[in-house]
TrEMBL record:
Residues 7-321 form the FAD/NAD(P)-binding domain. Belongs to the FAD-dependent oxidoreductase family. Its EC number is 1.6.5.4. Pfam families: MDHAR3-like_C, Pyr_redox_2. GO terms for molecular function: monodehydroascorbate reductase (NADH) activity. InterPro entries: FAD-oxidoreductase/Apoptosis, FAD/NAD-bd_sf, FAD/NAD-binding_dom, FAD/NAD-linked_Rdtase_dimer_sf, MDHAR3-like_C. Its cofactor is FAD. It comes from Zostera marina (Eelgrass). This is monodehydroascorbate reductase (NADH). The keyword NADP applies.
Length: 434
């Protein structure tokens, strides 16, 4: 089989790939120059929808509604947009071998693809309980969520196990978002996680206590400080119980596992320099090998504001890093210069009627402000993180667009704080005045 050759190949067909394609089109890519190769069967879509609107019991989100670039507030790129713009979308094609010295990618079916410039956008995969040898973890109806196929399997289980019992393993993003979405489907939910409170990598105990209280008020049971140590299944191989390390046994018709992601860098092991679990890049997303770029979840890049290398698994960075890489590639070709990537970390989540945003860095002392009583009619609260006398991070639940912009601005400009008690009293007003 003869190799197919392209000037540019984006490897991966997720969020970054979609935003890279749009940027290539803006920069005037010529027909036949660009290919996107994805193991998924769907054209790039906004992955965050899978743990939210996709699972709603009424009027769920479905493709083509959430193809990129709607999440970034742009035009939706329907599957037909790619050929209309001379871009080859090569779907259902998994690359199993990459050789950066010969600039060749090989698919599972033996097809070869040659490129002049490669953008690696392979994202993350889920960490599986079977990776830790948890007994019985391959039973039916134990679900993970990364791609639309996973979401379809979960939707089918929700429909076939009406009023059933769900155990959610993990108290991070997936655990909290799916706890809410499945509870909205009238399922009986128990969440289990090892830490003393949910989302410990970002939340303080005070932030977490609000969400845990809110979930409890919705009838969700939470078991902390232990892990799933095994699963029992019936004669059909369907899971029916989760055994916990502390000895408790929970009945389960459905299990959802969200115990973290792992960046998909294995294709390039030994070929590209890695750092902090990702592919090391500069502020233009160039890797250690000429003409090879890495963006989104897989890139470990210089976070200019904090003067250190970081890897970020969030959609805002996936979008922006992809655009930056394409701009850098084009600038390189034209012999012009662009500014290095200057990213303000931004995380968000939505569950039930709640919606929070966080900007900046969650280091240093914290100050909680506002009403974080989960039983309040309209709870609204936030937290500032203070390091070396400056506000470096800000979190806000139930903010308006204007208020969220204000906390973003605080995290970006890092104003000094004199009196902590005054900051607590001023709360959101402090951010709105900056
Ligand atoms: P992404 O995972 O989007 O795409 C990678 C693509 O590469 C996939 O199409 C994959 O199939 C393909 N691929 C991988 N290996 C391949 C190979 N060998 N050959 C061919 N194709 C290959 N973030 C956030 O900020 N807010 C949010 O609300 C959410 N919500 C959310 C929900 C769910 C369910 C998930 C799984 C993730 C989120 N995220 C999020 C995280 C966010 O979606 C994530 O950071 C971005 O999708 C990363 O974009 P990438 O393009 O790097 O990877
Ligand atoms: P996560 O890292 O957010 O949370 C993993 C959770 O599982 C943590 O609470 C962790 O301590 C817990 N855990 C670890 N081992 C465990 C075990 N053996 N038993 C029980 N719990 C265990 O990861 P996630 O929630 O799986 O999310 C996966 C990916 O999807 C991440 O990249 C995340 O950023 C992304 N995502 C993001 C959003 C968002 O930004 N709103 C939403 C959904 C998914």
């Amino acid at each position: 089989m003869a190799a197919k050759s392209f000037k540019y190949i984006v490897l991966g067909g997720g969020v970054s790939a979609g935003y890279a394609a749009r940027e290539f089109a803006k920069q005037g890519v010529k027909p036949g120059e660009l290919a996107i190769i994805s193991k998924e069967a769907a054209a790039p879509y906004e992955r965050p929808a899978l743990s939210k609107g996709y699972l709603f019991p009424q009027g769920p989100a479905r493709l083509p509604g959430f193809h990129v670039c709607v999440g970034g507030g742009g035009e939706r790129l329907l599957p037909s947009w790619y050929p209309d713009n001379g871009i080859e979308l090569i779907l259902s094609t998994e690359i199993v071998k990459a050789d950066v010295s010969s600039k060749t990618l090989t698919s599972a079916s033996g097809e070869t693809f040659k490129y002049d410039t490669l953008i690696i956008a392979t994202g993350s995969t889920v960490i599986r309980l079977s990776d830790f040898g948890v007994q019985g973890a391959d039973a039916n109806n134990i679900f993970y969520l990364r791609e639309i196929d996973d979401a379809d399997k979960l939707v089918a289980a929700i429909q076939s196990k009406k009023d059933g019992k769900v155990v959610i393993v993990g108290g991070g993003y997936i655990g909290l978002e799916l706890g809410a979405a499945l509870s909205m489907n009238n399922l009986d939910i128990t969440m289990v996680y090892p830490e003393p409170w949910c989302m410990p990598r970002l939340f303080t105990s005070e932030i977490a206590s609000f969400y845990e209280g809110y979930y409890a008020n919705k009838g969700i049971k939470i078991i902390k400080g232990t892990v799933a140590s095994g699963f029992d299944s019936d004669t059909n191989g369907d899971v029916n119980a989760v055994r916990l390390k502390d000895g408790r046994v929970l009945d389960a018709d459905i299990v959802v596992v969200g115990v973290g992601g792992r960046p998909l860098t294995t294709l390039f092991k030994g070929e590209l320099v890695e750092e902090k679990g990702g592919i090391k890049t500069d502020g233009f997303f160039k890797t250690s090998v000429a003409d090879v770029y890495a963006v989104g979840d897989v890139a470990t890049f210089p976070l200019k504001m904090y003067g250190e290398l970081r890897r970020v698994e969030h959609v805002g960075h996936a979008r922006k890093s992809a655009e930056q890489a394409v701009k850098a590639i084009k600038a390189c070709e034209e012999g012009s210069l662009i500014e290095a990537y200057d990213y303000l970390p931004f995380f968000y989540s939505r569950a039930f009627d709640l919606s929070w945003q966080f900007y900046g860095d969650n280091v240093g002392d914290t100050v909680l402000f506002g009403d974080n009583d989960p039983s309040s009619e309209k709870p609204k609260f936030g937290t500032y993180w203070i390091k070396d006398g400056k506000v470096v991070g800000a979190f806000l639940e139930s903010g308006t667009a204007e208020e969220n912009n204000a906390i973003a601005n605080v995290a970006k400009t890092q104003p000094s704080v004199g009196d902590i008690e005054q900051l607590r009293k001023d709360g959101l007003t402090f951010a709105c005045k900056i």
